[in-house]
Amino acid sequence: MAVAHYNNELSIDDASRSAVGANFTDMKLFAGEYERVLQTIASGRFSDDLAASVIGWAIDDFRARHHTTLTVGTQEWRELAKALAGVQLESLKRIAERDLGDFSSAAKHPLLVKAEPLPSDPLALRNISPDSAKPLSEILPLYLKERGAAARSDYDSDVTVRMFEEFMEEARPVYRITRVDVNGFKRALGETPANYSKRFALKLPEAIKANKERAQPFASLSAKTINGKYLGKLHSLLNWCVRNDIVPDNAAAGIKIISAKDQAQAPRINFSPGDLTKIFSVERFNKSNTFNEAQWAELLALFTGTRASELAQVKLDSIRTERNVLVIAIEEQTKNRGSQRIIPIHSRLLALKFEDRVQELRNAGAIHLFPVWYQKGMKAKATANSKETKSTLNHYFPRFIPKRFISDIRAMGMHDPRKTWHSFRHTFKTGLARAGVQRPIQDDLCGHSDNSAGASYVHETSVETMKDAIEKLKFDGFLS
Questions:
Q1: Residue 341 forms beta bridges with which residues?
Q2: Which of 265, 291, 402, 409 is within CB 3.0–4.6 Å of 414 for a Cys-Cys bond?
Q3: Is residue 456 very low, low, confident or very high in pLDDT (cuts 50, 70, 90)?
Q4: What is the DSSP string of 12-67?
Q5: What predicted TM-score, i.e. pTM, was given to this entire model?
Q6: 68 and 59 Cβ atoms separated by less than 8 Å
C-alpha cells in the first residue's frame, strides 16, 4: 500500500504538469504546516482524529478498493496511518525536487526501497499485491461476489476455506500457501471422517485424531468428494487469485487424489447411435400414445443439453417466442449466472408435438414443464432443510427421473457406469461440435459462457444463429 500510495501521488503530480493551460497553485505556500503535521503523525505521537483528518483519506481509498478492512482507532490502523504519513512526506520531497527541475531522485523511505528477499524467506517473491497478505477467508467474499455462483457452490467454498485454515491451524496469508501445504491438506482429507464437524464438534486435526481413537472409526471422505468438492473449490479460489494478480501461481494446480476407480474409469461419455436406438425405441416411444413426463424429459435432455436440475425447474412461462423462434429459457436456479440462457426448440421436438404438450399442461393449470418431477425435488429439499442440511436443488432433482432412467438403460444392456443421465448433455455438446458449430455458439447453448452479472442469457449470438446451430444436430440412431 505504501508503494501504491507513493506512485499515485507522483502520477497526480505528473498529470498536473502535463495539463495544458491548467491553473497552477504554488503548494509551497501551504507545505510548511502540512509537512509539520505529517511529521507528527509519522513520529507516532498523534491522536486518531488528527491522523483521520490528515491521512485518513488514503486509508479510506484502500478500504474502498478492498485492500484493507482496518477501522479508525485500532492499533493496525494507527500503524498504517503512521506509515502512509511518512510516505506522503517522501512524495512531497520528490514534488519539491521536480519544481527545481530535478526528476532523478529515488525514494529513500524504507517501505519504498525494494529490498531483496532474505534467503530464509523465499516466499517473499510471491507477495505481489496488497491482497497477497490476506488469508483465504478474507479473499473468499470477493471471489464469491464476482463469480455469482449458486448457493450450494458458495457454501462448499466457505466450508473448504474453513477446513483448510483449520488444517493449517492459522489463517495463513495466501502468498505463503505452498504446494506442500495443499498436499498436506489432501492427505488430511483422506483421513477426515464424513460430517466430522457434526459428529465431533471439533476442528479438523482434532476430529481426525478422535476418529482414529474410536473402536470403530467413521468412514472417511471419498476420493470423489475430496477432489470434486474440497480440492476443486480450493483450486478454483487460488486460480481466481492468480487471474487477479494476488499470487503468481496456483499452489493447488494438479493436486488430487488418484484412486483405483479414477485410474480405471474415464469421465462420463456420450450415448452411441446404438444406445440412442435402444433408448428411443418404438417400444419405449410409441407415437400412437401420449408421451409421459419421463419420456419428454429424455427428449428435452437430448435436444437441449440441459442439466437435470435446470430441466426440472423449467416453467411453462419460460417456453416462449423470441424473434419468431420458439425457445426454452433456462432462468431459474442455475449453476452460475453464465448458465442462464435460451435454447431454440429443435424441429424434431416440434414434429413430436411439443407445443401440444405445453398447451395441455397450461390447460391443466400447471406452472412447470415437469410438474411431478419439480414437486418431488422440492419436497426432498424441504425435508432436508428441516434437518438443517444445506443443499441446493442440484442435489435433489437427479434422484427421480434420472435415477429411474439409469435403471432402465442398465436393463437394456448399457452397463458402462460412465453412461448416465448426464450423457445426454455430453451427446448434445458432441453433436454440436461434429456438426461444425463454432465454439462460442456451443458455449451459448450449453451455458458455458461468461459468468459476469451481465451475462444472463444475453449473448452476442443471435437467436436465429442459435436456431440454425440447433437444426444441425443429427443424432444417428435416434428413430422417434
A1: 330
A2: 409
A3: very low
A4: HHHHHHH-TT-----THHHHHHHHHHHHHHHTT---HHHHHHHTHHHHHHHHHTTS
A5: 0.49
A6: yes
Find the largest Cα–Cα distance for the chain. 95
What residues contact 124, with CB distance under 8 A and at least 6 apart? 117, 118
The chain-wide mean pLDDT, for the chain, equals: 86
Q: Are the C-beta atoms of residues 324 and 447 closer than 8 Å to each other?
A: no
Give CA 404 to chain center in angstroms. Answer: 31
Helix (H, G, I), strand (E, B) or coil at 241: helix
Q: Which residue has the cell 422440492?
A: 378
- How far is the C-alpha of 146 from the C-alpha of 141, rounded, in Å? 9
Q: Which residues pair with 320 in a beta bridge?
A: 327
| pLDDT tens digits for range 18-47 | 764 545 555 555 567 888 899 999 999 899
Q: How far apart are CA 403 and CA 373, in angstroms?
A: 12
Q: Is the pLDDT of residue 300 over 80?
A: yes
| 384 pLDDT higher than 80 | no
Q: State the average pLDDT over residues 269-273.
A: 93
Rounded Cα–Cα distance for residues 62 and 71 (Å): 12
pLDDT, average across residues 168-194: 93
3-state class (DSSP) for residue 336: strand
Contacts with 205 (C-beta within 8 Å, 6 or more apart), sequence order: 166, 167, 169, 188
**How far apart are the C-alpha atoms of 27 and 309, rounded to whole Å?**
64
d(C-alpha 116, C-alpha 427), whole Å: 55
Short-list 342, 338, 340, CA closest to 452: 338
Q: What torsion do the CA atoms of 23, 28, 30, 32 make, to the nearest 10 degrees? A: 170
DSSP H stretches of helix in 192-292: 196-200, 204-212, 223-225, 232-243, 260-264, 273-279
Please choose, from the candidates 332, 281, 342, the residue with its C-alpha nearest in 3D space to the C-alpha of residue 479: 281
